[in-house]
Every structure is written in C-alpha cells, then in structure tokens.
Amino acid sequence: AHAKTWHLYNTSFRPTQGGQVSIALSSHWITPRRMTDHSIKECQKSLEFVLGWFAKPIFIDGDYPGSLKDNLSSLLPDFTESEKKFIKGTADFFALSFGPTLSFQLLDPHMKFRQLESPSLRQLLSWIDLEYNHPQIFIVENGWFVSGTTKRDDAKYMYYLKKFIMETLKAIKLDGVDVIGYTAWSLMDGFEWHRGYSIRRGLFYVDFLSQEKKLLPKSSALFYQKLIEKNGFPPLPEHQPLNGTFPCDFAWGIVDNYIQVDTTLSQFTDPNIYLWDVHHSKRLIKVDGAVTKKRKSYCVDFAAIRPQISLLQEMHVTHFHFSLDWALILPRGNHSHVNRTVLSYYRCVVSELVRANITPVVALWRPAVLHQGLPRQLAKHGAWENPHTALAFAEYARLCFNDLGHHVKFWITMSEPYTRNMTYTAGHNLLKAHALAWRVYDEEFRPFQKGKISIALQADWIEPACPFSQKDKEVAERVLEFDIGWLAEPIFGSGDYPPVMREWLNQRNNFLLPYFTEDDRKLIQGSFDFLALSHYTTILVDWDKEDPVKYNDYLEVQEMTDITWLNSPSQVAVVPWGLRKVLSWLKFKYGDLPMYIISNGIDDDLHAAQDKLRVYYMQNYVNEALKAYILDGINLCGYFAYSFSDRTAPKFGLYRYAANQFEPKPSMKYYRKMIDNNGFPGSGTLGRLCPEEFTLCTECSFFHTRKSLLVFIAFLIFSFIISLSLIFYYSKK
Fold first, then answer.
1. Which helix (H) or strand (E) segment is 379 a member of?
2. pTM of the predicted structure, to 2 decimals
3. In Å, how far are 702, 703, 704, 719 from 716, measured between CA atoms?
C-alpha cells in the first residue's frame, strides 16, 4: 500500500508539486545487558524485529531482515522479485517516531530479547544512519509525558525535550548523521491511547473539566520557543571561560576530613640497648635490664607526619584544612581524661605545617557516622539535643585554642553541619556552641594569638526547575533558607532565624523552631571573622507533585535534576555556574564579607587511569569562582579542593592510595599548575600579576646586616690565597 502510494505520487504529482513522501516508522533503542557477542546480536535482532521489519524492505533491498526470516519463516509472507523491486527505495527521507507511548509502553516484552531498553535517541539515529545507507532523517514525533495531575510547570517533560534535542544535535555535529528536522509531540494535552487522560504530553495545558478548554502554554512550550529562536544551544556568554588571576594572598588549599592519628614513634626513641650477634643469628639481641637515659621526644619522632607534609609541598598548596577528632582528644567529653598523646600529635602536625610554610586550617568538629563525631558520653546523653553539649564544646574549644593556637591562626568551629537531618533543637544548641567557642577565642586568645575563626556551612545551589515559573522560584528560595539560612541568618544576618522559615512553619502549625533570648542574639550575631562554605553541586526544585516518592511534603517541593547534566559515578551533577550563583546569593543576603570556598570536589571512578572528570570539574568550578571574584566583586579569599587522598575519602582524592603508598593523580598535577598560575592567566588576563615571592632565611640575618664586613673578609681570604700561591710558586722555582 505504501509503495503504491509513493509510486503514484512519484509519477503523477511530483513533477508538478515537487514534494516528498515517506513512511513514519516508530522504534525503541536497546542496549546489551552484558557486553558479549550474544547480547549484542540480540539487540540487533530486537531493532530488526521492530524497526527493520518495515525499514529494510523500503530502504535496502525490498525484503525482510534475515533475523525475521530465520525466526518467523512459517508466519512471514514472501515477496516476489517484482514486489521487492517495487518496494525498494519508496521513501524520499527516513521519517522517525521516537517517544514513550509507541516506542516503549506498547512494545511487546518479547521484542526486547532479554536486553535493556534505553531512551537514547542519539544512538538510534546513528544506528539508522549506518544500517540504512545514511538517509536523510526527519524526526516526525518525539517527546515525553508527565502525570495527568501536573499543571503548567511540566519540568520533567521540559528536560526530556531538552535531552532529545541535544542528542539530535550531537548526532548531527559529532556523528555526522543527516537529520533534517525535528517535531515535538504534542501541541496540546489530549486523549493518550491506552493511558487515556492519566498522562499529559502537550506543550499547551488543557483543563479538561472547564467549558472553555483554553490552551495555556506550559514551561516546555516557552522553553521550546526559546530553543527555536536560538536554533539550538549556542554558548551563553556567562558560561564562557574567563582569563584572569586571583589576589596575590589568595589561599590555595586542600581538604582532608580527618588526618590519620598515627602515634607510632620512630626507632630512635627506643631506650633499650642491643647487641649485634654477628657470628650466629646476625640479629640484634636485647640486653635485659640495660637501658639508656630516655630522651625528650620530638615531632620528628612521629614517623607519619613528614611524608604527608612532603606530599602537600609537592602539591604547592598554601593551606591545609582538616578536622580534629573531639572523641579522640576527650574520650569522656570533659577534662577528666585528656588524651595528651593525641594532642601532642596534632600539635606536631600543625607546627610541622607552619615550618613547611603551609597554613593549618583546623576544624574543631564535623559530623561523622559514629556518634555524630561527638564523644560517646555526650552522644549517649542526647548529643546536640542536650544544651550541655554546647557548654562542653566551649570547654573543648578552650583546650584546643590553648594547646594548638600558637601555631593555628585559621579556625573553623564546625565544618558542614548537615541541616537536612537535624532537629530544630539540635540546630539551636549547635548555634550556641559555635558562638560560645567564638567568644572564648575572641576574648581569651585572639589578643595574643592573632588568629581568625568562623563556621563552615554546606551551601549547594538550589535552582528553580522551571525558570519561567514564579512558584518554582519561591520554592527555590524557601529551600535555600532552610538549607543555608537556618544557620547563616543568626550568625551573619539579623541574629534570628530567617523570616521565610518561621512563617512557613507557623502556617503549618509547626511551632518547634525555638526562639532566641536577647542574650542569645547578642551571643550569636556577629560571631564570625569570615564566611566559609562547602559547595559540591546544584539541585533543581519544582513545586508540582510529579513523583510522590521524591516529593517532600514538609517543604512542598520535589527535587530533580537536568538529565542533560554531566554526572559523577555517584550521580552528583556537575554544574559549575551554581557556585557563582550561591556566592552572589550569600553576598546579597549578608553583605560584602570575606569568603572562603572551604571544600569543593567530586567523586570519580576509582579504577579510571585518568581522572578526567575531576580535572574538568576543578577547572570549571575554579573558573566560576574567578568570575565571581572579578566580574561580581565577591570578596573571595580562598579555594580548597576536596579531597587530599582516597585513603580518608575514597573516590574523591587527588592522591591515589594503595599498598601504603600515595600516587598523584592527573587532577593533582592540574591543581598544582592552577596554583602556580594563581588562576587562569592568558593574553587577556584580568586581575593583577603577583610579584615573585621569596622566603627570607632567618638564620641568615647576621649576614644580611653585615655586608661590608663580609666584603672585607672575602678580600682578606682572596689576598691570603694569592700570597700562598706566590710563595708556593717561587719556593718551587
């Protein structure tokens, strides 16, 4: 029937009308369950059974695929030779339909041949191009669907549309496929076959219960309109890389959540006396009862410290950020038992860092799986729910300031307290604990230690899923206040919780958020010297309840991701521009404060020889930080990469750790180059170039102040040598 119609048009109408005719074929895409020859052949068979059934006779040789003839010989009719010639070539282009209803939901499970379906339009386009002799392809139907309850903010549909069109562009630009057109399905919501009105696939919303049934554009329609205007995805100016450098005193750091406290002493601290049995066993034999005088221990005796500092020097970092282990220093949570050995180890670490010209950045506490990172007794008695924990934290902080503060000038009270699983009471006490520790340092230690101290907050960016939706913008702001503002507003802002947070909870009759007394406000407000943030990714939020499993009823928000974004193996989205946005948001909320990106990193495949993802991540995130500094006027003072090694943070390290050895990854070498360049210098470099720095040798100060004397001594030595030479010469003569 198709062939007869094509021939009719070709002979009777094409000469005068000049049009084109084809047949629209629907297909799925399938991937091998395992990368074996058998699985790959089964995938080929699946496509031949569905798409090839009609495509091969028309586009190749007028006959069915061999796999159909082999498996369905009793059912499949035969074409005569004249029919084959008549059918072959009866299409002016390849018209493809690819979408959820025809391509997936109605596909006979047997047609998958136990392989895996995948919505990969790019791979299907490449397969058609190779299988059917590079035809022109017109995508005549493509799209996705959302729940029937979804109104106009159809974020899920919009991002699938973006994915499919982006894959089409990649097929054209990267794979050389001749795609000549794209058609989105569908114009408006309607009756969707076996799914009825339970799903919506339109670009325009229809209220089926209304009399007028007006067509209202959805977010996907506005997105598609903008995309058509731009004819694709042209590079946005704000996403282009920037050449420039950071300030000369910029802090380039690396993070190690916890350093391994290894108090094993070197062999030189052993006071015992040994005899060497040179004649028989060839071993050292301990002499019982004979010992030497025990010498004073030194930091060099801790064998594990120097190798790690050597690795930091190899990286060229100026700062090293790590957390103390509260439970290790004070096992009982109070001063009744202070582990002086551990404190001595930490003291040696920070003093050796200072000797190596690396600034230690020390956090007093960070959350951990075991007892929340608290001493067992404190965790047992309510942890941060108990107000006593805040007082215990202040005493612990005083001990650390007293013992380590002579070497540590950069303190973090609390590193990345995670608000999403924290109760309001715990958050309240945590804020008091931070403020008490800050006041202890400010009043008792700052005058003579001259350091600085603040809190480090986790600050991932929250972006509206539908950029055209006012409701999504409101939701994004609400989540930012609950995620960041909860702890930031009392310290850096008004001294109280964010109004958005209080109003939202009161509207829902949730009165669990505590109130600060006037003394509390005075204690907490302003308890900072800088603003430190950890940032890793960006999350999209939507107000509409598309997926009940992922919907947060508490905040009336649904988190999602843009499926076109690059992801890490653990599905963390790589969205560099989110860092710049969160820095600008913090400046807008809390003013022009000194800011440090205290932790930023991504996981990568442990078995990957080249950690290309981390290099890409670091390059682009640091470049966004540079834009924030140069273009947005953010007072950015430092950047810390996460993490030092795979030993303490598997998959995140810049050093690979195996068999007790550290091996630098390509990302470490790239980071070192970035540090050496102080950013991204280029022909159009913005920012100022730093003068060459040198370290003055303190032991050499005697010589620097007596240059004339040195010249005179050098002259005497030279004269003495000449005299000796002359005496030797004439005496020999």
1. helix 376-380
2. 0.88
3. 19, 17, 19, 5
